[in-house]
C-alpha cells in the first residue's frame, strides 16, 4: 500500500462539473490550499458532464414548462422558474468573473447564444402557454420573452416546426433570444486546467474504494489505479463526493449518519442526433414541449441546437429507459448494491407511489423505433429517419429519501448531503444539475466552511456580485448584472 504522509486540504472525488466548480471556487478563495481530484475514468467530464450525455441547456426556465406548473385554480406558479433562473444567473456571474480574470478561455469555447422556445399544440396546451407567458413576461428575469399563436411568426423563429402541420391545429410558442447552449464538458476541462495550472493534482484512472473518518478527524481515502493492484491512500481535511451516480455508494461507505435513508432510482436515456447541415441551418433554437403523463422532468421532449467544439448538430429527445447502472460506465449491480436496511422501506414506498413513472418507463422500453420517431415528427413533421441516428445519454440517478407520511418519496432535482461537522459533503440527484453548479457549490461552501465566510465574503462577492441577495427583488441590479454577464460571455441580454 502506497500512502502520502502530508494530508491534503481538499479531496474532490469525481472529475465532473461539480468538483471542477467547487475546486475552482476554493482555489480562488484560498490559493495556497492543496487540492486533489480523483477521477475513475481515463479523463475528466466523461460521464454526466460529457456534452453528448446531457442536453447542454443553460437551464433558466426560459423554455422548460415543468418549472411553471398549473395550480388547481388554473393559475400558473412561477416560483420554480424564478428560482432556477436566479441560480443560472449565479453561474453566469461566476463564469464571467473567471473569463475576466483569465481563469477561463474565450466564452465561445463553452457557451453559445441559442434562443430558447416553448412549443405546444392542442387547445388546452395553448391556453396553458398563454397563461404562462402572461405570468412571466413582466418579471425582471424574463425580459424579452415573446409569445405567438401565428404559424408564420413561429416559422420565422424555428422553420422546421411548421411545414407539414395541419393548419387547423391550435399551436403556440414562446421565444427568447437570451437562451444559451452550454458545453459542460469543455467548461469542466477548462476549470480543471485552471486548477492544475495553479497547483492542484488531477488523478485519473483512480477508483476510490474506501472512505473512512480517522480519530484525528482526517478522512482516509483509499483508491486503486486502472493498472495494478496496489492500493493508494491519501488523507484529507475536507472531502467532496461529486461522482454523479457514484456519489450514493461512496457516501454510504463514509458511514456518516446523514446518508441514512437515502436511495437512488436510475434512469437511462437516448437522443436522436442529426449532423445534416441542411437541417442544422434551418433550426437555431432549443425548443421544449410538454412532458408526457407520468414522465420525469428530465424527460421533457425537446429539439435542440447543439454546438460542440465548434461543430453544430441537432438533437431530439430524450427517450427514457432503464438500467440498474448508476453510471454510464458503471456496473449492472449498482442498484442492488445500494440497498441497505435503512433505505429499503423508502425505496419500496417510493416505487409504490410512482406507478405512473413505472408505466411510462415500460412504455418507452417497449416502444418501436417508428413509434419513437413519431415523437420527433410531432415537433418536425417532415423529419426523415435517414437523417437521424441514436446516441446514448448519461445515466441519471434520482433521489429517494425517507418521508414521515409516505415512508419514502422520489425526488427530482439535486441535494447536498453533508456531515454535521462539514468535513465531508456529496451531491445526489440530477437535473438541472450542471447549469446550477455555481449556486449549489456556493451553498455547500456556506454549509461546510461557516468559519471562513466572513473573511471570504469580499472574494465571494467579487466572484458573484449578487452573493447574498436575490436579483428578482431588485430589478435594477438584475438588469445591471445580466447586461454585464451577457457582454462578457458574448450572449444576448
Describe what this molecule looks like in 3D:
It catalyses: (S)-malate + a quinone = a quinol + oxaloacetate. Keywords: FAD, Flavoprotein, Oxidoreductase, Tricarboxylic acid cycle. Its cofactor is FAD. It holds the Pfam family Mqo. The strands form three sheets. Strands 5, 6, 7, 13, 14, 15, 16, 17, 18 and 19 form a ten-stranded mixed sheet that branches. Strands 1, 2, 3, 9, 10, 11, 12, 20 and 21 form a nine-stranded mixed sheet that branches. This protein has one domain: 3-Layer(bba) Sandwich (FAD/NAD(P)-binding domain), CATH 3.50.50.60. Strand 11 and strand 12 (231-241) form a beta hairpin. The chain is globular, with a radius of gyration of 22 Å. Helices cover 32% and strands 25% of the residues. By secondary structure, the protein is α/β, with parallel strands linked by helices.
Quick structural overview:
Keywords: FAD, Flavoprotein, Oxidoreductase, Tricarboxylic acid cycle. By secondary structure, the chain is an alpha/beta fold.
Roughly what fraction of the amino acids lie in strands?
15-25%
Level-1 CATH class name = Alpha Beta
Number of DSSP helical runs: 14
The CATH superfamily is FAD/NAD(P)-binding domain
Q: In angstroms, what is the radius of gyration? A: 22 Å
End-to-end distance: 55 Å
Indicate the overall shape: globular
Unreliable residue stretches = none
Structural class: alpha/beta
Helix content: 25-40%
- CATH topology title: FAD/NAD(P)-binding domain
The CATH architecture would be 3-Layer(bba) Sandwich
Mean pLDDT over the residues: 93
Number of strands: 21
Give the tally of structural domains: 1
The biggest beta sheet reads: 10 strands, mixed
Amino acid at each position: 500500500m502506497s500512502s502520502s504522509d502530508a494530508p491534503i486540504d481538499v479531496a474532490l472525488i469525481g472529475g465532473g462539473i461539480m468538483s471542477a466548480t467547487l475546486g475552482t471556487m476554493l482555489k480562488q478563495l484560498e490559493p495556497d490550499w492543496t487540492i486533489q481530484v480523483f477521477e475513475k475514468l481515463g479523463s475528466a467530464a466523461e460521464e454526466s458532464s460529457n456534452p453528448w450525455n446531457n442536453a447542454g441547456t443553460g437551464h433558466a426556465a426560459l423554455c422548460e414548462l415543468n418549472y411553471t406548473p398549473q395550480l388547481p385554480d388554473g393559475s400558473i406558479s412561477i416560483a420554480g422558474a424564478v428560482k432556477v433562473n436566479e441560480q443560472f444567473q449565479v453561474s453566469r456571474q461566476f463564469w464571467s468573473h473567471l473569463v475576466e480574470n483569465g481563469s477561463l478561455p474565450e466564452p465561445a469555447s463553452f457557451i453559445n447564444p441559442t434562443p430558447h422556445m416553448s412549443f405546444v399544440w392542442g387547445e388546452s396546451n395553448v391556453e396553458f402557454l398563454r397563461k404562462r407567458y402572461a405570468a412571466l413576461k413582466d418579471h425582471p428575469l424574463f425580459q424579452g420573452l415573446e409569445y405567438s399563436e401565428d404559424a408564420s411568426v413561429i416559422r420565422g423563429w424555428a422553420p422546421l416546426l411548421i411545414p407539414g402541420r395541419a393548419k387547423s391545429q391550435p399551436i403556440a410558442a414562446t421565444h427568447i433570444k437570451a437562451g444559451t447552449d452550454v458545453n459542460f464538458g469543455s467548461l469542466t476541462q477548462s476549470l480543471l486546467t485552471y486548477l492544475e495550472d495553479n497547483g492542484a493534482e488531477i488523478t485519473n484512472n483512480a477508483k476510490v474504494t474506501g472512505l473512512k473518518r480517522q480519530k484525528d478527524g482526517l478522512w482516509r481515502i483509499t483508491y486503486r489505479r486502472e493498472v495494478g493492484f496496489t492500493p493508494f491512500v491519501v488523507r484529507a481535511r475536507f472531502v467532496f463526493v461529486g461522482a454523479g451516480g457514484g456519489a450514493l455508494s461512496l457516501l454510504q461507505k463514509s458511514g456518516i449518519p446523514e446518508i441514512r435513508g437515502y436511495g437512488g432510482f436510475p434512469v437511462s436515456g437516448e437522443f436522436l442526433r442529426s449532423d445534416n447541415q441542411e437541417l442544422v441551418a434551418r433550426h437555431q433554437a432549443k425548443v421544449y414541449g410538454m412532458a408526457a403523463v407520468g414522465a420525469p422532468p428530465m424527460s421533457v421532449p425537446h429539439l435542440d441546437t447543439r454546438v460542440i467544439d465548434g461543430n453544430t448538430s441537432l438533437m431530439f429527445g430524450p427517450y427514457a429507459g432503464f438500467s440498474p447502472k448508476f453510471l454510464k460506465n458503471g456496473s449492472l449491480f449498482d442498484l442492488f448494491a445500494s440497498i441497505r436496511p435503512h433505505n429499503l422501506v423508502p425505496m419500496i414506498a417510493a416505487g409504490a407511489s410512482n406507478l405512473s413513472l413505472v408505466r411510462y418507463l415500460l412504455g418507452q422500453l417497449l416502444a418501436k423505433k417508428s413509434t419513437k420517431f413519431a415523437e420527433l415528427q410531432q415537433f418536425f413533421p417532415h423529419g426523415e429517419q435517414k437523417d437521424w441516428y441514436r446516441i446514448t445519454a448519461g445515466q441519471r440517478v434520482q433521489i429517494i429519501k425517507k418521508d414521515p407520511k409516505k415512508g419514502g418519496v422520489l425526488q427530482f432535482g439535486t441535494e447536498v448531503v453533508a456531515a454535521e461537522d462539514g468535513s465531508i459533503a456529496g451531491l445526489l440527484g440530477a437535473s438541472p444539475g450542471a447549469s446550477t453548479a455555481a449556486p449549489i457549490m456556493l451553498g455547500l461552501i456556506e454549509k461546510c466552511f461557516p468559519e471562513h465566510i466572513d473573511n471570504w465574503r469580499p472574494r465571494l462577492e467579487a466572484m458573484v456580485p449578487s452573493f447574498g441577495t436575490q436579483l428578482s427583488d431588485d430589478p435594477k441590479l438584475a438588469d445591471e448584472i445580466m447586461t454585464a454577464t451577457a457582454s462578457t460571455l458574448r450572449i444576448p441580454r
